Fold these 2 entries.
Entry 1:
Amino acid sequence: MSNVKTVYKKSEGLSDFHLSYCPGCTHGVIHKLVAESLVELDLLDRTIGISSVGCSALNYDFFSCDMQQAAHGRAPAVATGIKRVKKDAIIFTYQGDGDLASIGIAEAIHAAARGENITIVFVNNAIYGMTGGQMAPTTLPGQITTTSQNGRDPETQGLPLKISELMATIPGATYVERVSVHDPKHVFKAKKALKKAFEIQRDKKGFSLIEFISTCPVNWGMTPKGAVDWAVDNLIPYYPLGVYKDKTEGIE
Amino acid sequence: MAKVLMKGNEAMALAAIKAGLDAFYGYPITPQNELPEYLSKQMPLHGRAFVQAESEVAAINMVYGAAGAGARVMTSSSSPGIALKQEGLTYIAGAELPAVIINVMRGGPGLGGIQPSQADYKQITRGGGNGDYYLYSLAPESLQEAVDLIKESFDIADYFRNPVMIAVDGLIGQMMEPVDFEREVPKWDLKPKTWAADGNRKNRKKNIINSLYLDPNDLENHNLKLKAKYDEMRDKHQRYEMINMENAEIVIVAFGSTSRISRTAIELLKEEGINCGIIRPITIYPFPQNAFNEIPESVKNILVVEMNLGQMVDDVKLHVQGRLPVHFYGRVGGIVPEAEEISDQVKKIVGGTYE
Amino acid sequence: MINEKTIIAGFGGQGVMLMGQLLSFAATEKDINTLWFPSYGPETRGGTANCSVTISDEHVNSPVISTPDTIIIMNKPSLAKFQPKLKVNGICLVNSSLVKDEEYRDDIRVYEVDANNIAKELGNLKVANMVMLGAYLALTKVFTEDEVLGILKKKFTGSKAKLIEINKYALEAGRKAVL
């Protein structure tokens, strides 16, 4: 067996639990990037992750660091509560679009406004996944969901919220970037952004939010490949990728 | 140590600092504002955390976070704000975390008023949020008792790994009385918080703070585990005071400010030859049901006095079990009853003219 | 043996709360039981304000005073509200600068003090409350003027220290107005 070489292994930042996500969903990739970033920066032992409500509610089992599960939308408040008494801990929240952009928008904005030294991992797939495909604040105009069955009508259901653009306007925020994981090149870019966010937190430079454009093949009614293509063709044009704010580089 | 004259809200804040408060998270609401105001100055001076949150909901979720990380943490509010905090409270109870919540009650429903009230009795004693859970709830009647109980409440919360509510009315929050802050309070036998998700995983397995149990068997077991705590509270940790019970012909049941006013009422009644006792619940959860087994034969009637329209009276009836007539007198809207009103009610009952 | 129950009432901003607090601080200083209880409105200025102060050798029970021994009346509405509660032979101390030509019960002791004008003559209308407090101390002898000034000296430090002198004169002027 001496000629067997390990060319790839699961990150130490992830537990042995089977992920509960649907085939083709990008949560798995994003989990891997969070875990790898924390391990590579040697931060895992002092990290506390905050699970939110949504498809990722169970991820307190998936990461191998300390974890606390939060009520719907409240993860940034929970993170604040912890960070203020554990200043050297690394705190990240992991929130979907329903959790952060809808019920938890106040907590997200005010955590940024206070310049809380935490990192928000925001996963935007333009739909409520766990509850069965309802309209999210980030659902595109015309997009069909179980609560916008004729397609989202901007006249009555408004226009999507652009969270990275919004958070970048908040003076207290240090670093805001939108990334995607639809191909290897973008996965590498996304990991770079995540690592930068955790470094900013480690160096006590303040609030960071990384928005991931994600997919939901099941609730979008698409194949995994079709969902990735739809995200590239529809979500990314509406939600352009890039750095929206980086005080450490003078980008505001 | 000499006594210090302080406003109730400030005295309660200082008591929490004396108890080793690590963090306070709150949101402004009358009539408890002096409490966070005082802490906004004092906590940073002690190197401890203070955050004025964006909402009551955020504040209680900050409390949940800090409690999960093993800190001694507190929030305070008043009735409508406590209603908003129910989301966090049920999570804190569900995840078995210690925290202290001070409720300086005002009148309701809705925005209600800002004057003293005890109309949150049911919200406090029934848990308040979703699911089967309870808060260990203490209702002091004076500032000294409030300070002593708050100092002890952090131990109680740690012991049970359960939120403790300090239920006072606006009167106690706003009044000034001399207080001795150095009085000894009972110390509970506490274990180290090895369960805390405090980001210190180096030499242990990871810790998870959670209230989610998707498997019905797991959730039932969890609910039964919680119930065992509430049973222990009921069986071993009821607190109450029985006042002037010997040969009493009637007993007033009242907590907090109302019990204090009732103390004056029974003095007035004594002058008229009426012997009236008081049962004063100190814990309103667990309800001090044992007190009702100790009522002497001489007692023929019970009068429950509250600053609401009859909430605790239901618990009294439940535990008197029809053995004695239970009457009720309440004032609401922020009106605090005078001692004479209470003694008049007693006289009507004793004289048989009560309707 | 002290058992003095006082209600002090007026407009918000007249220093009604401070008068009561000074009495409670003086009591605490002498290790006498005391309880101060405000009736508070949402407005900080201009609304009605009153506080109840109990000073007693015995344990203080009800914070609410239903039959005061003394009432200090700083404005008209307060007289209407609290005169009926005053105990028989109790002291009704009235700021006659603002409360004039009123009908009083004949079973109480009424003392009128032209507090606003006395305070103006001293150079600061704001010390009208201290003029009334001086009169109260002279009539009830609960504390000496020096005991109350001692509390003020602890409260007024730094830039406020210069206010102690006028407060001293105000207490004296109040005493002279009723004796």
Entry 2:
Amino acid sequence: MTAWLVICTIALTWLGAGAVWLVGDSRPRWQHSLAVTFALAAAVTAVLLIPQATDEAVITLSVGGMFGTFTFVPDGLSVFLTAVATVIGSLAIVFSVNYMHGEAQLGRYYALVLLFIGAMAGLALSGSLFLLFLFWEITALCSYALISFYNDDPKAVRGGVKALIITQLGGIGLLLGALITRTYLGDYQISTLLAQADTLPPNILSLLAFGFLIAAMAKSAQVPFHTWLPDAMEAPTPVSALIHAATMVNAGVYLLARFYPAFAGVAGWKTAVATVGMVTALLAALMAMVAFDLKRVLAYSTVSQLGYMVYAVGVGGVFASQLHLFSHAVFKALLFLGAGAVIHAVGTRDMRQMGGLRRQMPVTSVAFMIGAAALAGLPFFFNGFWSKELVLEMGLEGGPLWAYGGMVLGAGITAFYTFRMVWLVFWGEPRGAAHAHPAGTAMRVALIPLALGTLTTWLVVGPFGHWLADTLPYHHLHVKTTAEFLRDIALAPATYVAIAVVGLGLAAWWWRDHLTGLAKDLRGLAQFAANGFGFETVNRVVVNLTQRAASALQLTQTGDLNWNVVGIVGALLLVLLVLAG
Amino acid sequence: MNDMSILVAGVIGLLGAGLYGLLAVRNLFQVIIALQVLVKAAVLALVMAGYASGNLALGQSLGVTVIVADTVVAVIGLALAVQVKRHLGTLDIKALATLRR
Amino acid sequence: MLNLILVSGAILCALQAMQTKRLIRAALWLACVSAFVALTMYRIGAHEVAVIELSVGAGLVTILFVFGISIAGEDAMDAPAIVPKVLIGGMALALVVTLGLLLLPVGEGSPQPEQTSFAVMLWEQRALDVLVQVGLIFAGVLGVLGLLADEAQVAHKPVKRETAVANPEPVLAATETPAPQEARA
């Protein structure tokens, strides 16, 4: 039963991808409904999988040789990420029905999105490091292809190539980790690595730990690898919501949380993780303050919130990171889809040309503001508040104080830029020439569940914790009931510090006219932030080097069959000589 | 020189002839013919191996599979060659290298 | 002795097929290779596969080649080889010599009495292969139909997209003034 659910979750999306492709672009109506049907079916199977979660492999497939055994283990972490990917994926596809209406090459779009959802489910569910790597690469490939979806736009293509190259760096780290595990422990199973991590030589274990950290940093867009995510915003907005906010970028956090028990003992690893998270959260928040592109603001805020999750893992709060991942996936998908509705309506991404949209798009603006309140961490009714407070509380308990200070400051800046964004888009007077029209039905259908989720998911914190703890034998999570959680957070002094800072952030926006002096003083910082703190240059060097190496190797690609056969025969001769010698 | 050695030499010779063809010819049809020669060597090797190990039936059934696959390859290759001729006006494989800078 | 003649005949025909400049001749030389190989296989007792090879390899494939060549037309090709001649000959020779030195001579095989007949082997023990072959043939037919059919023309609608922000200027506390180029009266 469980095995079938696992198979169905992955297979349904991939079958759907094939079906949409086969139907052909001449029948867009069919493509829309097929994509929605398959995505919803996969979401249903993934949700059905939740009560079946177990820490044992439900599918074991021996592929022999170097590849070891492929297993699927639907434990708490996996099923959780699968459910997030499929449910939000299906909502993004529902949203696309309106958003992509009338676009050319719908088949390519839907097929890639569905392929991505399946690969993400596979990534989460696989119990073998090698299989994990395979799915990891498929998600990277889909992400690249979807960022470059408008492939006649050079900016989109450049963004896609950049994302591909940078996330590949992470992929190499993961592959190396898998091979090292196989060499020292005899197989690729994640459970083997978690169980026998302390039998590895210490230097090898730290190599693994930091290799996986780099993999996670590249995938989750942590400083200094964060620059690909803002450029990825050239993708259609539902794709940004799905891949670059709610799911794929979480894969890095998932990786860290998954292997936390194995690496927690490695000297300096936790501090490194917490530092990476803190620096990312802060720098990305600063960059979000000065961006004018609505999707870029959201992208930077995603990077920043991912920093919170990474920080949470670094201070030992695996559960806090997963809870924040949950909240963030819901409210950030909501924000992105809301932004998509806005962009679709006004035809620009520049916030300076929006304004006053709350009257023209009432449903979208209310939904967006709910998401924004959760992002800012406004107290009590929004899931973002509870999970962020839990992260900060864990930070105060288990991490260095300076990192905690940075995170609290980050929370204040988050409130500031969130408020700025909402103000520029929905309040004030209309500034753009374009006349906005309300969001379509399918868009609203996708927005409303996410808005409701943002208001309610914090209520399931207790059962969620127990469910995770029951199926994760190596993580030793300490869980409480919902009531205990809420009471602890509500009574913790850290909470009031954070609320005060969030209030300060809002106040700073409100009285921004009085702060112009300060703003002038910080102009240099603003310029620096707008230029991405110079990391852009580093990344450009990496990307350029890769591309130059590729063009140098192009010389060997004559495209002539005869020369290719020379290569083949030459290699054959070499092999024969080795065999003879 | 016994019979088996002759057969092995034949397989090697056919392999050499096929690879020589792939190295030398520029006509798309002849490329397919060179592939056919290579596959003939493979079929002969399979059947011969079945004969030498006393399991000729197995060798034969594998040989049949290879023949079928190879025929499909030839058919698809021919159709592709016809399309190439139709679109590019030539069968020279040099004309196919359009991906170069 | 007969084997030697058959085998060298096959190799000679193969070389001829590679050497000739006329396509029809190349196809006919290939048919000869096929015939020689089929005869060789018949001689060592592989009767069934020899018959299949003769009918498919020498018959069907040759007809297909002639058909294809008649559609595409003879393409006289006097252009010199792309790879230097020395390299071609050297590599082919080196490969044959290395393989020969590695493999030859081989001992006499130990032909044992047949336990299973070809039919039983093919239909019962290798049923999966047969299934795969059916799939292959089907795929081949589909592929050829797809290739020979005229490509369907798909009309593409123009792609609409969002306009991105060009070079946002940094302002810490954003003012609500519109972007300069979009300023309204």
